[in-house]
Amino acid sequence: MTVKEIAKMIDHTVLSNTATHDTFVAACEFAKENGCASVCICPFFVAECAKLLKGTEVKTCTVIGFPHGTHSTAAKVAEAKAAIADGADELDMVVNVSKVKDGDWGYVKTDIAAVTLVSHAAGASVKVIFENCFLTDEEKKQLCQICSEVGVDFVKTSTGFGTGGATAEDVKLMRENSKPEVQVKAAGGIRTLDQLLEMYEAGATRMGCSRSAAVLEEARARFEA
Q1: Of 150, 131, 145, which Cα lies nearest the Cα of 67?
Q2: Which residue is catalytic, options 86, 111, 156, 170?
Q3: Are 149 and 109 in contact (CB under 8 A)?
Q4: Full domain range(s) for residue 213
């Protein structure tokens, strides 16, 4: 694997509520310089991010219903429409974990489908965040089935704001229980090259990473030495 291939899997992520304007701008410059898949940033910065990334292959990504997923479906749809209007290419939406725990799968499916419909109509991709640290394996499998039926682009392990992040076991479970065309994104706690490669081996093709610089530095030292 090359450093370029590794960078192309990374959604370089800045979602801290204390991040400054300079931090968001620096994230866009880093992603452009290194050829990351996307920059995943807070919704209010989408328009500026899209301008900074214009003319590159790096996508503008933002979050919907973040970080708890308990926004109403109407609010999530409104967020999605606003993000797309501002120039977002990819939307990472959080499932309603409360409804998952209730077993209200009809609500969960409708919630995911509503955001997917408006996103796909505009040519944007959707990644559905499960927040696996709060779920049983059976709940994760049911979500994979729903996401496959709805036709989302990715299923994603975590927000990075829960009590746990990505694990190879969860990535493998999600890969095995989703349709082949639904990709898996691992996010939450990926801080080293070895962790990223472990997720890749388990089946993830996209990685949410805020420590991208350190990961790519490791990759250069290992693969370009």
Answers
A1: 131
A2: 156
A3: yes
A4: 3-223
* Mean pLDDT on 29-44: 98
CA 96/CA 112 separation, integer angstroms? 9
- What distance in Å separates the CA atoms of residue 74 and residue 124, rounded to the nearest whole number? 18
Q: State the chain's mean pLDDT as an integer.
A: 98
Among residues 11, 86, 92, 170, which one is catalytic?
92
25-48: average pLDDT: 98
pLDDT for 179 beyond 90: yes
The verdict on whether 156 is a catalytic residue reads yes
Query: Letter for the amino acid at 8?
Result: K
Query: Does the structure show a pLDDT above 80 at 130?
Result: yes
Q: Active-site residue 185, yes or no?
A: yes
Q: To 10 degrees, what angle do helices 21-34 and 212-223 make?
A: 20
Q: Which residues contact 144 (CB under 8 A, 6 or more apart)?
A: 155, 173, 174, 177, 178, 182
Residue 225 predicted with pLDDT over 90 = no
pLDDT at 157: 98
101: annotated active-site residue: no
The total domain count for the chain is: 1
Catalytic residue among 76, 99, 109, 185: 185
Q: Which residue in this structure is represented by tokens 């990505």?
A: 166
Instruction: CATH number of the domain at 53, please.
Output: 3.20.20.70
Residue 124 tokens, joined: 């944007």
